[in-house]
TrEMBL record:
Keyword Repeat: yes
InterPro entries per UniProt: C-JID, Leu-rich_rpt, LRR_dom_sf
Organism of origin: Citrus unshiu (Satsuma mandarin)
Protein name, per record: C-JID domain-containing protein
Isomerase as UniProt keyword: no
């Protein structure tokens, strides 16, 4: 059984160690690593420093994982090296970045990592805030018109899942249950949105439904935006990897760009209502949403 690894190649971009349930340690990770799969690595208690380019970390069911390093975002690097060039981007650079935003969501999954202590959970949530901020800045710097003209309507944003039952304090709008209605500030946007960041506390306890045992559980956020002249509905969907053994509350934190959403009234008298639900819960009993924040 694999218990340790040799030094990893410096050019390695993807490392899948799924099912290595005797693996006790991981060596230093290459700087260019983009994907790290650690599902079912039950003997791991900690991780090495993560690559700044890391886009996806799947650590579901690492039941002994207790502490984590800083959660990075490749957008931090892009913000310094690429975004400053986007004020007058070349066609090739603009197309590359549009495809980057479309095809490469940032995902960090810690489903069923129940040994993560409160300090580790708080660190993940704290690290998620700059990730979302960089994602929003990146979307804004790219420009709504460029994204719209290139017909890219499904920029995927970022998604973080971890055990817990509290929504971070920096979500200023919170409610019990699965829906919330807010009046946008007067100067929150003019004729386009950057996107929405939302957080939900889910009861993953077993339910008598086929949805509770899927490899991926799909969720939907129904966004209704009302202005003086019109009402718009937007579906913001995503999937969370899980399995039948999950039996505790989890926090889902997500940023979804909305670059193609615009309003003729600008920012005047705009009300936003969001409803968050397990897709199967419309016709069957699904996972309960305990709290919701935007």
């Amino acid at each position: 059984m694999l218990q340790s690894l040799p030094a990893l190649p410096l050019c390695l971009e993807s490392l899948d160690l799924t099912g290595c349930n005797m693996l006790r340690s991981i060596p230093e990770l290459p700087l260019c690593l983009k994907y790290l799969g650690l599902e079912e690595c039950n003997m791991l208690r900690s991780l090495p420093e993560l690559s700044l380019c890391l886009q996806s970390l799947e650590a579901e069911n690492c039941k002994r994982l207790q502490s984590l390093p800083e959660i990075p975002s490749c957008l931090q690097e892009l913000d310094a090296s690429v975004l400053e060039k986007l004020s007058k981007p070349s066609p090739d650079l603009r197309q590359w970045y549009l495809e980057y935003l479309k095809l490469h969501p940032i995902y960090f999954g810690f489903t069923n990592c129940l040994k993560l202590n409160g300090k580790a959970n708080n660190k993940i949530l704290a690290d998620s805030r700059p990730i979302i901020r960089h994602m929003a800045i990146a979307s804004l710097r790219l420009g709504y018109e460029n994204a719209y003209n290139e017909k890219i309507y499904e920029l995927r944003g970022s998604l973080i899942v971890l055990p817990g039952s509290e929504i971070p304090d920096w979500f200023s709008n919170q409610s019990s249950g699965s829906s919330i209605c807010i009046q946008l500030p007067l100067h929150s946007f003019r004729r386009n949105l950057i996107g929405f960041s939302f957080c939900a506390v889910l009861d993953f306890k077993k339910v008598d439904s086929p949805c509770s045992c899927n490899s991926y559980v799909s969720f939907q956020s129904d966004l209704e935006i009302k202005t003086l002249s019109e009402t718009k509905h937007i579906d913001l969907g995503f999937s969370v990897r899980t399995d039948c053994s999950v039996d505790s509350d989890h926090v889902i934190l997500c940023f979804k760009p909305c670059l193609n959403v615009g309003f003729p009234d600008g920012y005047h008298h705009t009300t936003v209502s969001l409803k968050f639900f397990n897709e199967c819960s419309r016709n069957q009993k699904g996972h309960k949403i305990k709290r919701y924040g935007v």
